[in-house]
Sequence to fold (312 residues):
Amino acid sequence: MNDQVKHFEIVIIGSGPAGFTAAIYSARGGASTALFGGVAPGGQLLQTMEIENYPGFVEPVVGADLMQKMLKQAARLGAAVFNEEIASVDLSGRPFRLKAGSGREYTAGAVIAATGAQARWLGMPSERKFIGKGVSGCATCDGFFFRGKEVCVIGGGDSAAEDALFLTKFASKVYLVHRRDQLRATFRLQEKLRANPKVEIVYSHTPVEITGDAKVTGIELKNVVTGAGRRLETTGIFIAIGHTPATAIFKGKLNLDEEGYIVTDEKMATSVFGVFAAGDVMDTRYKQAVVAAGAGCKAAMEALLYLEEGKK
Ligand SMILES: Cc1cc2nc3c(=O)[nH]c(=O)nc-3n(C[C@H](O)[C@H](O)[C@H](O)COP(=O)(O)OP(=O)(O)OC[C@H]3O[C@@H](n4cnc5c(N)ncnc54)[C@H](O)[C@@H]3O)c2cc1C
Fold:
């Protein structure tokens, strides 16, 4: 083996709550541990100012602060944290081989994929301007902030329907805006939406612009059939058009489902023995920081057991 190639017993790819929790457990479990986190480690929580549902914080915690604490904790326990991306992986032999964006190569006894996912956005400049100021990609995370307010959900699938129903617990009214003349959500969810007096489904409309000053005050829509405009006065806009898992480097190397998520068993094992996955990259349902952290813990414990077994 080339002397330039550094070896770690466990290499973690990804720097959200799943990756850092995996690094904490891996380093504390006695394995030489490297975490590759990309140029700006911290994951999706860097996009949010107020996290109220991560245990241990009485007052809301800023996403960047929480992630900085996780990074420092992993480093204090001995994990090497690299601010670079893994550009490609070779999982066909042992040890596993990884190439960073810088061209540097590494080998690993076990790999944990914790590369996360990205909430899909509509792509309008006004949407970007108001993320965290009324525009949200996560109803479970931010619904609580809209008690007694009128809100709007964009989307037509199961997650949009579930988000709309969830938001009726807090909001005085929930508009569900969908570009087609019928929803894609399951029939049962559609029945629940229709039965809920707080929900108004706005069919055949697409968002044109989100308006506001410091915070969102409304959204301009366009009827895709007639071209007519409609404005909704709303302070909360929830984009529920799906997530894209960050699995490009694993395509053709690990089993992925039809949406690109890594398929794992209950022990976080992937289709390649010795490669584990944790967090939003394999979680098609919950997509919460605490769930990702829990999955990272499980993946690291399984990776440590896998390495132990290999020594026998
Ligand atoms: C705006 C917003 C607000 C949210 N608010 C909350 C909240 O209040 N409470 C809550 O519980 N959840 C919240 N969430 C959801 C939460 O952020 C996610 O569930 C959680 O971050 C998932 O963690 P993860 O570790 O799986 O991955 P991620 O957080 O997605 O992190 C993965 C990281 O890995 C990096 N990466 C990807 N590929 C590579 C590679 N090849 N090499 C190196 N690094 C790579 C990515 O750049 C990213 O930094 C929110 C999400 C968003 C978008």
